[in-house]
From TrEMBL:
UniProt entry keywords in alphabetical sequence: Acyltransferase, Cytoplasm, Fatty acid biosynthesis, Fatty acid metabolism, Lipid biosynthesis, Lipid metabolism, Multifunctional enzyme, Transferase
Protein name per Swiss-Prot or TrEMBL: Beta-ketoacyl-[acyl-carrier-protein] synthase III
Main function: Catalyzes the condensation reaction of fatty acid synthesis by the addition to an acyl acceptor of two carbons from malonyl-ACP. Catalyzes the first condensation reaction which initiates fatty acid synthesis and may therefore play a role in governing the total rate of fatty acid production. Possesses both acetoacetyl-ACP synthase and acetyl transacylase activities. Its substrate specificity determines the biosynthesis of branched-chain and/or straight-chain of fatty acids.
Top-level taxon: Bacteria
Amino acid sequence: MTGAKITAIGTYVPAKRLTNADLEQMVDTNNEWIVGRTGIRERRISRQDEYTSDLCVAAVQDLMKRYGKSVEDVDMVLVATSTPDFSFPSVASLIQDRLNIQQTAGAMDLSAACAGFVYALHTAHSYVASGMHRKVLVIGADTISKITDYTDRSTCILFGDGAGAVLVESDKQSTGFLGYQLTSDGSGAHHVYRTGLAHKVNNIELIDTQMLVQNGREVFRWAVRTVPLGVQQLLEKAELGLEQVDWFIPHSANMRMIEPICERMNYPMEQVLHSLVNFGNTSAATIPLALDLGIREGKVKNGQKILMYGFGAGLTQAGQLVELNLDERVGEPTLL
Ligand code: ACO
């Protein structure tokens, strides 16, 4: 097995803010309810003519500027998203040309909803560890606002748009990838969905709106019950204890989900990183955004162990424990 490490990170969020006060003008809600039930204060919303591919390109440009990296020699592009510009071609193919990535690099999208970034990270690690690839660009990006029903007050308060990119490169000396966990429970597929060609799943008729539909309560219960078990299994496989994890980055779905998850795990909230307050639930982008906020704030440092854990529609879960070993930064991050 070849070693692998995350060498660089970059992020992007659209400029337009959607605050709780704005939402008060749109649906029957109020700031106190939203903050109390979710922890979210505002989200970023893409322009009408701004798509997931645009967010990806901007996140990679931030990465290149900060770490002095080129992506011309990337040999695989993986984009985790539930909101691609088109069903096909893939977002990965769209950005290959815009970023001057060699035509011989593989490029594909990966669909695992809010667990997508961690699924893609695991895939990148597998490719690099096998020795078949050397430099993989991994992006988690979504424009969920484009499929959000802004008349559904229990859903529209949650979501925002964003993108986060990392480079996974081979490392002959050691590996930064310490353990993983992947699960999927299709029996809960009808709890979060957007209809496509089919309108029925698990023998249940779906609401055909082209918008995101969720049973928030069911997703809430499922995540609080199962995420602590998934984390435990990951750590057992990695032969590490929770006390060795410096930072826990659960998917930023809702503060009121993260708190009971950490309580059940007996993990201190002070060591949790999230991107909820200013960006809301950005689906595949929440975890790289949270990691980057921790880096930008000077909390996260090389040598620390970071446990990323995504969960969402599918119902999917993906965890990845890494020891961070970023290259030295040479430029300032783009303001978020
Ligand atoms: N403002 C004011 N009141 C509201 C709002 C709102 N925005 N939304 C719901 N309410 C009301 C409800 O109508 C209900 O009123 P009632 O008791 O008179 O019927 C009351 O608040 C409680 O409703 P619940 O649905 O029980 O509220 P809950 O505390 O569960 O919060 C929420 C709802 C925020 C959606 C929560 O369940 C949640 O975050 N669930 C997880 C959602 C999630 O993570 N989805 C993942 C999708 S990710 C992916 O893979 C794409």
